[in-house]
Amino acid sequence: MYISLSVQRLLVDSSVSTLDADLHQEALTITLETRNPVSSKVEITRDVGGAVLQIGGQGAVEEEQQRGRSPGEGEREEVIPSPYLDRPVLDKLAEEGCARWGLTYALGSMQGWRANMEDYHNCVPQLGGEFADWSFFAVFDGHAGSSVAQHCSQHLLGHILATGGIGPEDDPERVRGALVEGFLHTDKHLHSVARREGWERGGTTVTASLISPYYIYFANCGDSRAMLCRSGQVCFSTEDHKPYNPLEKERIESAGGSVSLQRINGSLAVSRALGDFSYKGAENRSPVQQMVSPEPEVFVVERSPADEFLVLACDGVWDTISNEELCAFIHNRLSVCTDLRDVCTQVIDLCLYKGSLDNISIILLCFPGAPQLSAEALHQEAELDDLLESKVADIYDELCARGEEPDLLSVLTVLASTVIPGLPPGGGIQSKRNCIISAYYQQREMHGPSVPNGGS
Q1: Closest CA to 277 of 196, 192, 201, 189
Q2: CATH of the domain at 384
Q3: Which of 120, 280, 285, 438 lies 20 to 30 Å from 367, alpha-carbon distance?
Q4: Could you tell me the CATH number of the domain that includes residue 220?
Q5: 109/258 same-domain check
Q6: Are residues 358 and 397 in the same domain?
Q7: Could you give a GO molecular-function term held by this entry (predicted)?
Q8: Do 324 and 421 belong to one domain?
Q9: For the chain, which ranges sit under pLDDT 50?
């Protein structure tokens, strides 16, 4: 029914090309663990009365709550392992492709600090047959396991197309109805599968875009987000579905639930999702009236020659960067990067360095009007890299001259307080962290083992 054209996949190691994996991991240990002290070895112990006796690992309670249980429920002295790792998993999945009508895209995805990878995606740059000029892309951010996200990534588009609402006439109202109906059909079909497979407590958010010759359709269900940029500015973005939003809260309470700690029943942090059937059992209420609704919010934007790029991403991105910052950063990166996969990789690294503890997934779609490589921008980027390398060398030498240990954290601390012109808009010094790490290890290698190096 649909085909993918010009698709290439690869695994990208996040290390800088001039560093080996061990050195880069050491650098991450220094720069990240000092800020994100999470460990899979730390546990939560709960007792039957609901008192939390010991808490370790940021987000561990959240993980347990997403499984549909409140802290304190269950057997005495139940031990919950932290949902986070001692060190982040840095390998990235990268994918790129194009459609014959001029669209190019890339995907980047990384497990990060999370103990498991629960993100999935679907990239179909060109639908088949009479819909050869239509494209579909979606990001699925699973919780309480990856099974629901994986299932929906494989079946959602099929359910949308099966409605018959998508036709060559490109009627916005019919397509809007097809998207809503497709989500509801997916959730209904998923329910029977979930009962059989034991996935009742699992769920996934979805943010999807269907692109026709005349319109861009957005379907959002949960707190993943889509954003469209024109002329270097945010033109449109979806709204996150959170339990504390007034309309969402009203539906939750009408279905017999409550909102506390900004969560449904103090547990689930999203108010719309596919799956999560333990929150969909209110009698005499339709699927869209349950505490967790599977109904997407659908938006229609007329296409314009000024369209530059579209972003679909999970909350592992949006928790650390605003719409405007990401728009500015990608706009700048497109003028200096020849490979869209590299742009996605830089976004992921930026979010990691800004403190994201979640899985991180992003799909970047570029229209014919997207920024192109610029000789001037490339020259400015090279000058910035040279400036950073020079400043790292100066800081390293100054620390050595003072008899201080020139460890990476000390170099970064001094550099962070330095005014540096020409940093990428929206990214700042964090977006050049890999360049800085590379320059630091070049200095360490040049000075030799006689110079203190942070105990390594």
Answers
A1: 201
A2: 1.10.10.430
A3: 120
A4: 3.60.40.10
A5: yes
A6: no
A7: manganese ion binding
A8: no
A9: 1-22, 34, 36-65, 67-75, 450, 453-456
204 by Cβ neighbours in 10 Å (0-12 / 13-18 / 19+) ranks as buried
**How many domains is the chain partitioned into structurally?**
2
Whether 430 and 283 share a structural domain: no
Q: What is the pLDDT of residue 32?
A: 56
Spatial distance between the Cα atoms of 320 and 112, rounded to a whole number of angstroms: 14
**Pairing, β 263-264 against β 274-275:** unpaired
Residues 353, 416 within the same domain: no
Cα distance between the two ends of the chain: 56
Which domain-ending residue is among 344, 366, 388?
366
Range of the domain at 397: 375-447
Q: Tell me which residue of 380, 381, 440, 367 sits closest to 409, measured CA to CA.
A: 440
Query: How far apart are the C-alpha atoms of 182 and 175, rounded to whole Å?
Result: 10
pLDDT at 76: 52
Token pair of 17 as six digits: 């090309």
**Residue 343: closest CA among 354, 352, 358, 331:** 331
pLDDT for 50: 31
pLDDT of residue 448: 74
In this structure, the answer to whether residues 328 and 419 fall within a common structural domain is no
| Residue 231: per-residue pLDDT | 92
Separation between Cα atoms, residue 454 and residue 412, nearest integer Å:
13
Task: Confirm whether 321 is domain-assigned.
Answer: yes
Domain shared by 386 and 359, yes or no: no
Q: What interhelical angle do 408-416 and 21-33 show, nearest 10?
A: 60
